[in-house]
Amino acid sequence: MNETDNYQQLTLTEYNFERHFDESLAIEWMQENWRKAFVFCGLYAALVFGGQHFMKDRPKLDLRRPMIVWSLSLAIFSIVGAVRTGFYMVYILRTYGFKQSVCHQSFYYGPVTKFWAYAFVVSKAPELGDTAFIVLRKQRLIFLHWYHHMTVLLYSWYSYKDQVAGGGWFMTMNYMVHAMMYSYYATRAAGYRVPKSCAMVITSAQMAQMAMGLTVVALVYQWMQDGDCTSYLDNIVWASLMYLSYLVLFASFFYKTYFKGSKVKAA
């Protein structure tokens, strides 16, 4: 039985919407439209910083109920995405090994994950809406928050169009971390007290994600030289800079928030 046949065995576990999703059209659309991510980022920056100016002399808004709905929706989406991509990641690891989990492009077109790969990159646009709650509630907007939102959107759309190696790890880790993060936000918005240790665990998971991201990028570059990983040097460079900057910023955030007592909002 060849590799393709093995992947096809997983179609039995697909839901109808996953099975009927046409990833070729999604990839074609992204190849033609990925630059629109710059437009979204431009509008985002204008609305965020324009919104801060608008709210400067106005009272903050009480958005507890919308925050619950928003965070809970993203939490559910991330949990399901984490389960579906995580299931497929475990399958690839157990069947083909770690190198294939990094280099193989089946996450973009394979059973179960082809829908969730596209949903992952597209979701980075509506996730920009997170910042509206910070602006309208007149909370402190830190650099890490808006920088992270903009660069993730740009890199995700830029990479999906080329189906670069490592994407399976990137999306699976992000789904998992966001499942924890948005569940935490929803719980806090609902008025429940959450132990500080939970926030520390989430930030630690974010740092671990960035460290693993750098590791995956390094391995893609190494195995790309042997022709085993499909990627491009410019993608490797941008991914390395992105993950390294995230790791530094999240480590700084962790130190300032949990060891210096700085009361900044989680990214």
TrEMBL record:
<keyword id="KW-0256">Endoplasmic reticulum</keyword>
<dbReference type="GO" id="GO:0005789">
    <property type="term" value="C:endoplasmic reticulum membrane"/>
</dbReference>
<dbReference type="GO" id="GO:0030148">
    <property type="term" value="P:sphingolipid biosynthetic process"/>
</dbReference>
<feature type="transmembrane region" description="Helical">
    <location>
        <begin position="141"/>
        <end position="160"/>
    </location>
</feature>
<keyword id="KW-0472">Membrane</keyword>
<feature type="transmembrane region" description="Helical">
    <location>
        <begin position="166"/>
        <end position="186"/>
    </location>
</feature>
<dbReference type="InterPro" id="IPR033675">
    <property type="entry name" value="ELOVL6"/>
</dbReference>
<keyword id="KW-0275">Fatty acid biosynthesis</keyword>
<keyword id="KW-0443">Lipid metabolism</keyword>
<keyword id="KW-0276">Fatty acid metabolism</keyword>
<dbReference type="GO" id="GO:0034626">
    <property type="term" value="P:fatty acid elongation, polyunsaturated fatty acid"/>
</dbReference>
<feature type="transmembrane region" description="Helical">
    <location>
        <begin position="236"/>
        <end position="255"/>
    </location>
</feature>
<dbReference type="InterPro" id="IPR002076">
    <property type="entry name" value="ELO_fam"/>
</dbReference>
<dbReference type="GO" id="GO:0019367">
    <property type="term" value="P:fatty acid elongation, saturated fatty acid"/>
</dbReference>
<comment type="similarity">
    <text>Belongs to the ELO family. ELOVL6 subfamily.</text>
</comment>
<dbReference type="GO" id="GO:0009922">
    <property type="term" value="F:fatty acid elongase activity"/>
</dbReference>
<keyword id="KW-0808">Transferase</keyword>
<keyword id="KW-0325">Glycoprotein</keyword>
<dbReference type="InterPro" id="IPR030457">
    <property type="entry name" value="ELO_CS"/>
</dbReference>
<dbReference type="GO" id="GO:0035338">
    <property type="term" value="P:long-chain fatty-acyl-CoA biosynthetic process"/>
</dbReference>
<protein>
    <recommendedName>
        <fullName>Elongation of very long chain fatty acids protein 6</fullName>
        <ecNumber>2.3.1.199</ecNumber>
    </recommendedName>
</protein>
<comment type="function">
    <text>Catalyzes the first and rate-limiting reaction of the four reactions that constitute the long-chain fatty acids elongation cycle. This endoplasmic reticulum-bound enzymatic process allows the addition of 2 carbons to the chain of long- and very long-chain fatty acids (VLCFAs) per cycle. Condensing enzyme that elongates fatty acids with 12, 14 and 16 carbons with higher activity toward C16:0 acyl-CoAs. Catalyzes the synthesis of unsaturated C16 long chain fatty acids and, to a lesser extent, C18:0 and those with low desaturation degree.</text>
</comment>
<dbReference type="GO" id="GO:0034625">
    <property type="term" value="P:fatty acid elongation, monounsaturated fatty acid"/>
</dbReference>
<dbReference type="GO" id="GO:0042761">
    <property type="term" value="P:very long-chain fatty acid biosynthetic process"/>
</dbReference>
<keyword id="KW-1133">Transmembrane helix</keyword>
<dbReference type="Pfam" id="PF01151">
    <property type="entry name" value="ELO"/>
</dbReference>
<keyword id="KW-0444">Lipid biosynthesis</keyword>
<feature type="transmembrane region" description="Helical">
    <location>
        <begin position="67"/>
        <end position="91"/>
    </location>
</feature>
<feature type="transmembrane region" description="Helical">
    <location>
        <begin position="37"/>
        <end position="55"/>
    </location>
</feature>
<dbReference type="GO" id="GO:0006636">
    <property type="term" value="P:unsaturated fatty acid biosynthetic process"/>
</dbReference>
<keyword id="KW-0812">Transmembrane</keyword>
<feature type="transmembrane region" description="Helical">
    <location>
        <begin position="198"/>
        <end position="224"/>
    </location>
</feature>
<comment type="pathway">
    <text>Lipid metabolism; fatty acid biosynthesis.</text>
</comment>
